[in-house]
Amino acid sequence: MLFISATVSRACGATVPALCAVVMWVWPAVSWAQSAGATPSQAFKLTPSSYVNDSGQRASDWNLRWHQGAHTTWLGHYSNSDQFVQSRAGYEYAWQTNWGQWVPSLQVASKGFAGGSINWQSPGVVHGLLGWGRTNGETYYNLNFDPNDSVLYGAGYKPSERHHLSLYNISDNRFNTGQSVTHLVWRYAPNDRQRLTLDLAAKQGRASADEPEVKGQTISLVFDHGPVFIHWAQDRKVNFSDDNQTRLSLGVRF
Fold first, then answer.
1. What are the structural domains of the chain?
2. Model pTM?
């Protein structure tokens, strides 16, 4: 453990500092979870993330989720090189009915932000997806990277617990921005300890009603191995800006 930490520390001088911070902080938890035999069913999930924009802006985010049965709560903290700092907390409930699964959620954040959503998935191997979200319009750095005041519609195909394919669109329906993001998501679990998630997205829209429209694409890849996961994404026109962003998360369940 000490040898690995020292090696990472020496390497940081030649790489992105924020990325190294992710590795150095999460590595002890990863090692502990592996030695304890943690599995993806464990209650807690810690996700430190690093964001780097082409413009040079850097940001970090920490998110701790707790999941038990139908209940999920989370705490998070975001900070970037423009000195924008925001903490958040949220809760969601997965309600199973004969008509499918309903997932209402609420989130609050510093700077006065509050928001909520409700999503529905119909039962069946082939299923429908619907959703609706609203915020109070206060300042918020959008870590969903999709419109928050929006409607969602789509469909999915889940022939087994190991395979899931979904196609859906999320579009702004409040602020006249024309924001629209279409996702194609494929999840595959070759065994009980590993899972691969690929998310391909295409977007178009404006950051605000009076700004020019942009178009961009996102590729996101998540690999789970036991209690450990790594998430990489390349996002062109992130949050409908002129900037491109690379994201890296290295997390652990425990």
1. 2-253 (2.40.160.40)
2. 0.85
